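Researcher: Please translate sequence to structure tokens.
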Amino acid sequence: MVLWVVTLWVLTAIAPRYPRDWLLENLLVFASCGLLALTYRRFAFSNLSYGLFTVFLSLHLVGAHYTYAEVPLGFWLQHALGLARNHYDRIVHCAFGLLLAYPLRELLLRGGGLRRSWSYGMTVVTVAGLSCGYEVIEAIAAMLVEPQLGVAYLGTQGDMWDAQKDSLLAIVGAAFAMLCVRFSSLKECP
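Model: Translation complete:
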């Protein structure tokens, strides 16, 4: 999994559409991977969780390479479904909740000592907080680091409710993931 993420990171580092945007977007990848590496001996996630991290980081790296508003897959979906905008960013926000809810629940159960019955709701609430917090930090960072890059970095595509819709999709993704875990054999896992 590490080899895949590093390989994809190197490939997406080659001629990104907006190099400064790519660097700004990848600060989270560096921080996330660094944190996972530093804490591995004290808290190792399950293989499923590492697989989910890998899928999410892969989606993010592709989005950072093109900028989320200009990912070719999003344009293909836009044309195929007759949509008004490129929805790749919305897919990734939903994937944030869908793919990261399970590892987050694992962390809350094993690292935080949370009771199983509380873990489903707390996971969704935590994803909501992380997603909404990210939207605020993203807007502040875009304006402070490079105001001209703000539109490309934020990728609102003219939608004044973009941040709220993105957060809602993350929450829906997390809620769906927790419903799947609750009613499957995965609930017996970490």
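Researcher: Any highlights?
Model: Residues 116-145 form the longest helix (30 residues).
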